[in-house]
Amino acid sequence: MTDSTSAPRDEAAQNATLQKAVIVGLQPGQARRVLDEAARFAVLLRVPLVVAHVDVTRFVTYEDPDGYVHSAPIDINFQAGAAEFEAVQREAAAALDGTGITWTARQLVGDPALAIKQLANKLDAQLIVVGTRKRGIGESIREFFTGSVAARLAHRQHRSVLVVPLEEPVPDDQKEIWVE
User: What is the pTM of this model?
Assistant: First the structure.
């Protein structure tokens, strides 16, 4: 599911060069470790890396027969998703430029698990890499209503999903995992 900012013909041509890629789902300010792990696997597998950001403030309105997705904003502040995507692109460029890794960034829209799954299908991706969520009551509530992206990906498609911890592990003797 790409945003309507790219032309369908351009996307189809790019998809052909990205077959078997490693896909990494990123958010602005996410731990660099997630991108580093994805890049490491792209190098090991000798495939391109696709950095995917999902704009959850937009939804899919319809999809053309060639796979091009049209979207509309849920909220009037539709520039927020564009700014987040630009931040993800900057962070990826800072980490990946000069490494020799072939990579590109994609803006997806809608439900994160479904959007990443659809992109993985288009590219016949070998691996999907995501980070764990941040600890905290707000994130716990969000996950209660939407579910874990990693878990939903693991149960709704056939590719391997690598889940990279974002923070230090919770000690075994700590009863509550998400303490505020």
Answer: 0.78
